[in-house]
Design a protein that fits this description.
The structure holds 2 protein chains of 2 kinds. Chain A is built from 8 helices and 12 strands. Chain A is of the alpha/beta class. Chain A has a 5-stranded parallel β-sheet, sandwiched between helices. The termini of chain B are far apart. Helix content of chain B is about 60%, strand content about 10%. In chain B, the strands form 3 sheets. Chain B has a 5-stranded antiparallel β-sheet, sandwiched between helices. In chain B, strands 7-9-10-12-11 form a 5-stranded mixed β-sheet. The chains are: A alpha/beta, B alpha+beta. At the A-B interface, helix 1 of A face helix 9 and helix 10 of B.
Chain lengths: ~230, ~550
Amino acid sequence: MSNPRILVVDDEPQIQRFLRPALIASDFDVLTAASAAEARRLIATRSPDLVILDLGLPDRDGKTVIADVRAFSQVPIIVLSARDQESEKVEALDLGADDYIEKPFGIAELLARIRTALRRKADGPEATAESFEFSGLKVDAAARTISRDGIPIHLTPKEYDLLLQLVRNAGRVITHRQLLTAIWGAAHTDDVQYLRVAVAQLRAKIEREPGQPRFILNEPAVGYRFVGE
Amino acid sequence: MRDPASASIPDPGTAVLSRELASHAGMITIWESMARFSKLDRLMPADPAIGPAPGARLQAWLPPLLAAVLVPLLSVAAITALGYAVSDVIAGKSVAMFYLAAVVVSALAGGRVSAVLAASLSFLAYNYFFIEPRWTFTVAHPDEVVALFMFVGVALVTGTLAARLSEHAATARQQAQSTQSLFEFSRKLSGALGLDAVYVTIASHIGATLGLQTVLLAAGEGSELAVVASEPPGQRLAPEALALAQTAGERKVPVGLSTHTAPASAYAFLPILSAQRVLGVLGINLGERGEPLSQEENRALVSMLEQAAIAIDRARWARESARAAVYRESERLQSALLSSLSHDFRTPLASITGAATTLRQLGDRIDPPTRDDLLQSIEQDAGQLNRFIANLFDMTRIESGGIKIRREPVEVPEVIERATSRVRAIYPDFATNLSIAEGLQPALGDAILLEQVLFNLLENARKYGGPGAPVAVFARREQAEVVVAVTDQGKGIPEEDLDRIFEKFYRRAKGDGRAAGTGLGLSIARGFIAAMGGTITAESPAARKRGTRFVVRLPVAKSSVP
């Protein structure tokens, strides 16, 4: 099997300068693009397995690339963004980006995100597995039962739905809006408070130390991420 | 008619009077409608065909006091002559009716005093000329005594009423005039663009309306009142008068002439008030006129001040909202600058972090030349960050004035040499075409700052001229100046942008994709050169429709001028 092919879309030569050797050294094939138009063309013609996308591009806003690409491809997209651009991140994720990483970032972190995204892609976009197990936490979707270290945990239907959304997207950030739409419906996309309460209750039941959660992580102003390992 | 036994008029003397009395109501309505008619006319004074009311015309011809005496005398004399002429045809008693006309005319022309005078004169004349025995002031018949006094009573009442109507008409006329004047004022005010124009309109219109000198004071940027307009323009106030005006503003009451506070002043100061605050103070100079404002003038002034308050309030609000817009714009600009700054910091930092972590975690799987390239990129980006911070620091020093400028002879060729070698240390491919005049005199300035300026210009020239394209540098003397020029071979800069490139954080290319830099280099260059007493300008295209030339001019050091 050939190496996965990654497209890096960034107009800063300095970023390409280290990303390229790092990705090659990690057994990926690397394509590069410095503009939105070039990125769109390469995604259509070379079908990369994953796209790393900087949102600040010279010709067009990187977010328009996500919208365009989602019309014909489900290729995982990891967005490079800045810490002070929460709304940009949320918009990108809502448009269909799979994950984001803040500049400056260490290469290990990026590689971990890439692997998570590629694994999810291999499993298929709608993870249909019926049971999950993460360091002692067992989720049986067929029987709708949860247990930790063999002890059953009772969840309300909303808490269960929330947990299932999170574990099915394990490793990936899900925006507040996406979670609210999936669990409470389209009418409640702005009621982040519902979500906060439900997450707090869920943490109290499944985390060993709810004050220092290790399963459900907060992504401030963006959403939540379920960490399996 | 002269038959006392006439059936229709049993007693002509009393009959005339009682008929007069009976028709009073009718007369009043007639005069009232006349007055109303004339009032309506005055609302449309633009039509010159409609002249002033008769009373006004009389008053205009004669001094008021003379009219008040002359009109009764003449009218009574005329009625007497008329009555005498017709006394053979009609009964002498009927002449009383004619005298009422004289009373009414006098009342209209001269007011109450004239009416009383006319009534008294009529009484005497009627008695003397027409009541038996004629040519005496004696009255033979007792009933005629009654008739005579009835006549006087009716004449006085009629005269008073007529005079009052005449006064009403005059007031209405005046009100119409002041309404018209207010219309005019409000039209002028709404046409005035900006607060200053509003101030000038207020001072000049009120001054012209009252025929007096006016000064308008308003609180400027500070809270102190100052003269903002006057009629005639350019007037100043003595300190005492200014203090009075301030009192008027603080206490929100009129002060000065004919008020309780400082009644001896030449000026009366009236506050212009809106619902919440004092908008200004109007001073009117009554010193030359020597008498206070009449009631009508006062009324008109109050109305004008109300209009003025509305206009000032509106103009101020407009000015404040314009300021708020400017403020919002500068906020927006600032946040754009911040995001540009954070981008410029983050990109080299991301590159350093990325390269360092790659080397540490994947180093053994990367070939040596690539490892070397990553190390070099770390070095370069650290250097860029350092220059970036130095630029920010320089900018702060320029803006806070905390920079020490030496003004001493500077050997320009040496400075050019140092600056170019600094650029070459960062970009080994950097090439220059140097052209330095033989025996160039030293310039007056600061060698360190000049080196920084030239470094910024050379680095820009390399960045925008493209790597490998040589940058042309010349230095020579032109009259009393040393001129240094740096010319690149890039695309050039459109003329409209030539001045803006020196603005802080101005970057011609937008977005993420522009060349790395802070947008500070040129504004620092301009700040330094200006501090040294020189100039820096940009010219584009420099040659053959391409390139940009930056020209620095510094004075030649005096000691070296032969």
